[in-house]
Amino acid sequence: MAEAYIVDALRSPTGKRRGSLADMHGADLGAHVIGAMVGRNAIPAEDYDDVVFGCVDTIGPLAGNIARTSWLAAGMPLNVPGTTVDRQCGSSQQAIHFAAQAVMSGTQDVVLAGGVQTMSSVPISSAMLAGQPLGFTTPFAESAGWQRRFGDAPVNQFYAAQRIADHWEISREAMESFALESHRRALQAMSEGRFAREVVPVEGRLAMDETARETTLEKMATLASVDPAYPAITAGVSSSTCDAAAAVLVVSERALKRYGLTPRARIHHMSVLADDPIWHLTAPIPATRHALKRCGLRLDDIDLVEINEAFASVVMAWLKETGYAHERTNVNGGAIALGHPLGASGAKLMSTLLHELERTGGRFGLQTMCEGGGQANVTVIERL
């Protein structure tokens, strides 16, 4: 089978909600990473076959096929199409999969995959909230088929995060220690310039991520839970909402030769698996096992892991189940510190994973994340 190669990966800095990027239109933020990607790679813009972007809650400034409008807002040629993907939090990781699949099928040679999310202007679940409390609306509650199968079982992220903490016996204090370490790692990574190659500053607005915080366990202990029903789940152990965009350039071997490109990584494996939607956030566990079995690798073969820190309990349960070392997981901090820009997170994590493999000399990196509906993508890349 033909191979799919990554020749570049980059991202915008992550702006905190109502922060430096808050009033930036989604198309312009997407255009920012598109323009940077096209500008620093020797492929004529008109030769791109497609733009595949992830985005969640595509309403307001994120509506109207944000992949296509971001490309046009970047001043790029009219002939290049775009399509927008929604696999919830894994949307831009799925965009990378679609790009790789197109290249491996031989139908396309140059695909720009990525994602954008402006959570300052379009908060999480805006398309379905209709004035109801954040995270508690089930968009399919009126479905007769859903009711027959699942009844009135709660489907929301906070319930799932608490249920995971209870099932795996993860205390609030343990989650707060995990979260504190996420912030410590992120701040250290920034101070050492580890993100310098992957982040494309937004001139006049933001040069580097502004979400990580100097905090303490004492401060975290004072935070109220998101709801009395979920006593261990606070803002401190949850990913932060933010604004960001990211992009990954996926090409064929034919494109490597045609444009004289040097591949930085090869897509070694990609898969997606689902779990119980009521548990909601547990799918990375079976999805990781499934992926490793399919690609013939063991966890010992994986040098680095990026798993999205939607909540501390999600990653901590994954670590308990897999036995993988926390020291090699989210080594530069995770979404608790660096933010979770929903539809952009997959490409954002891929950019960080690629650059960290290059910095440390690792060979294989694995990326996974929990996704709405009880799903999880897994991507394994091999640094070249």
From TrEMBL:
The keyword Transferase applies. Residues 5-253 form the Thiolase N-terminal domain. Keywords: Acyltransferase, Transferase. Residues 262-383 form the Thiolase C-terminal domain. CDD domains: thiolase. The keyword Zinc does not apply. Pfam families: Thiolase_C, Thiolase_N. Belongs to the thiolase-like superfamily. Thiolase family. This is Acetyl-CoA C-acetyltransferase.
